[in-house]
Amino acid sequence: MVIEKKIRSWHLLQTLLQLLLVTFSLIYSLFIHANGTAIFKTFVLIILISLQFSVLNKNVNSKLIQCNYYFQAISITSTPIFFFTLVNDLLTKHTNMTITTFVLCLITIYKIFMFIPMGELTMGKVQNKWGRFCLLWFIYLIIEVESTYTIPTNPFLKACTNSAIIGNLSFAVTTWFVMKKWGFVTPNFKLSSKISKIILCILIIFIVIDCLFNGFNGADSWNGIFTNWNFRIATNNNLLYLTLSALAAGIGEEWMMRFCMLSFLLKLLQNSSKQILEAIFLDGLIFGLIHLFNTPFQPLSATLLQVIQAMAAGILFSALYLYTGTIISNIAYHFLYDLAGMITSGSILMLSPTIFDWQLSIFIVLIYLGLALFLVTGKRKKVVEYNLKFQGLNKKVFLNS
User: Fold this and answer.
1) Domain of 369?
2) Number of independent structural domains in the chain
3) Are residues 246 and 133 in the same domain?
4) How does pLDDT run across 171-209, given as a tens digit for each residue?
5) Final residue belonging to a domain, choices 158, 182, 206
6) Residue (of 385, 394, 384) closest to 199 by Cα position
7) Nearest to 316, CA basis, from 340, 284, 364, 282
8) Is residue 283 a contact partner of residue 258, using CB atoms and an 8 Å limit?
9) Where are the alpha helices (DSSP H) in 224-261?
10) What is the per-residue pLDDT across 253-275, written as a single tens digit (0 to 9) for each?
C-alpha cells in the first residue's frame, strides 16, 4: 500500500507538471507566437493530460474504469511525444545551447522511468488476458516510435533518440512492473544452476561463430564460404548510432519476445502436452512476422528473407532462453549478431539478396532449428522444465482419465 501510494503521488506530480508546461505553451501560442495548428494541438494535449488524473480513482470493479485503463495506458504513452516536442521548441527558442542540452539530457534519462506509474496504475490493472496481450504490443510500438523524436543538439543525445535505445529501456523497465502485477515472475539474470557446462561452452562457441559469420563472411558462393572473410568496418561516422541500435534491438526485442510474449504463450499453453515446442515455434513465428514492418524501408525480397531468418532465429532464441534460464544470454547474442552485421554494412537495413544468399539462409535456418530442438529435447528438456517451474510456467499435470 505504501508503494502504491508513492506511485500515485508520482503520477499526480508528473501529470501536474506536464499540464503546467503545456498550459504555458498554449498561452505562449495564443498571445506571443500565434500559430493555429500549434494552438489546436496544445489544446487537445491539455484535455488528454487532464483526463489522466482519472486513473487515481480506486474503483476497480466498474467496467467503465476497466475501459479507462486501456484508454489511459495508450494516452499516457502517446502524449509525451507532443509534450517533449513543445519543451524542445521552448528550450531552443529561449535558452542557449548549453542549457538546452543539459535539460534534454535530464529528460532523456527520466524517460527511461517515466512510464512506471502508467504501468502500475493502468496496464497492471487490465484483467482480460487478450486485452493484456494486445495492449502490450500497442504500448511497445508506441514507445518504440515515440523514443525516436529528433533532438537538434548534442550528437550523443541524437544517437540515443534515433537508435530507440531509450525507448527500449523504458519499455523493459515499465513491463518489469506490469508483468509482476499480472502475476508473472520477472526474468532471471543468472544462468540456471542445472545447465551443462559442456553445452554452455558449445553455445558460446556457436554464438561467436554465428556473429562473426553474419558480420564478416563475404562469400558470394559455396566455394568461398570458409576462405572469404573481410574484417573491415564499413563506416566510423555512424558507429555510435549503429552500436546503440544493435543494443536497443537486443534489449527491446528480447525483452518483448522472450520475456513478455514467450511467458504469455507458455501460460496459454499450460494444458498442452507439447507446451514447450508449441510456445517456442509460435514465438518464432511472431518474431519473424514483425520484421514485415521493414518492408517500406528495404527491398521486398530482403524483407521476406529477413522474415524467414528471424522466424528460425526467434525459435532458437526462445530455446536458448528456456535452457539457460537467463535473459542476458539472449540480449548478448542478439546484440552481438546485429552489431556485427551493422558495422560491416554501415546500415540497419538489408540489400536485395542473391540466389546464394537464399541458399545460405536455408542452410542457416536448418542449423538454427536443429540447435533449438536439441536444447529443448532429451536431457536438456529436464533443465528447461526445471527453469519453467520457478517461473510458474511449467506444464500443468493432469491425471489420466
Assistant:
1) 197-391
2) 2
3) no
4) 999 999 999 999 999 888 999 999 999 999 999 999 999
5) 182
6) 384
7) 284
8) yes
9) 239-254
10) 999 999 999 999 999 998 888 99
